[in-house]
Amino acid sequence: MHNLGQTRSVRRPNHSLHTPDAFIRTRLPGMSKASAIVHASPALGASFTQYSAEIEPGGTLGSCSFQRFFYVLEGEVHLDLDGDRHTLVKDGYAYLPQDFSHSLTAAQPSRLAVIEKRYQLLPGVSPSAPIVASESEIVGQPLMGDVDLTLRALLPDTLTFDFAVNTMTYQPGAALSMVEMHVMEHGLLMLEGGGIYRLDDAWYPVSVGDFIWMGPYCPQWFGAIGKTPAKYLIYKDWNRHPL
Ligand code: UGY
Ligand code: MN
């Protein structure tokens, strides 16, 4: 059944909402038996790229000449680094520094959230080694003292990293305590549940599978709605001077 020309997706100068009803798959160079839904890129105004990768067993993502972060949404993948094989399942994630040679192959039908960004060197700061971990190992912290809003930082908060990726889990009815407006941009993927997102001067119902891009200084607020927690994966540029 066609949708009579309706979608919840929007593109505005300083934010976008990308909903599954509007997703189009493409193949990026180096991919085999895999496709990408590119949610955010410089074409949108973002200074990073974020896509969802869907990979068949035996399929690969190909190499990357930028920093690459990926988080397993579903399935099982093998990550080969320096002769060591790591197996990652749902909630597993990895950080690969810029130009780091690696190979990523799906062992089962898999979906990944992938973030790629050109590294901003800082004089005197050496780039990080790769990181392979699972979100379940990370201890959550209440955000601004709110025990109903848990933040898990997936990357160390040191000057080595020029971006952060966190998960935020809202108990039913929990909300950000303020409307934020900041220089950092965000890429956000809804992992569980749903609620209302304020972006600039608009309020959007959002739920699992939706992606949001927030440009710099986009006023933003979220309140969880529903009987189960809402959770999202959120990227932000971090630890670098704005100039
Ligand atoms: O880290 C953040 O800026 C986060 N609190 N923003 C958000 O959830 N929209
Ligand atoms: Mn924010």
TrEMBL record:
Query: CDD domains this protein is in?
Result: cupin_UGlyAH_C, cupin_UGlyAH_N
Q: Enumerate the spans annotated as (S)-ureidoglycine aminohydrolase cupin domain.
A: 47-119
Q: Which UniProt keywords apply?
A: Hydrolase
**Where is the Cupin type-2 domain positioned along the sequence?**
167-233
What would be an example GO MF term here? ureidoglycine aminohydrolase activity
Q: Which domain of life is it from?
A: Bacteria
Q: Which Pfam families match?
A: Cupin_2 (PF07883), Cupin_3 (PF05899)
- UniProt-listed InterPro entries: Cupin_2, RmlC-like_jellyroll, RmlC_Cupin_sf, UGHY, UGlyAH_cupin_C, UGlyAH_Cupin_dom, UGlyAH_cupin_N
Its Enzyme Commission number(s) read 3.5.3.26
Name used for this protein in its record: (S)-ureidoglycine aminohydrolase
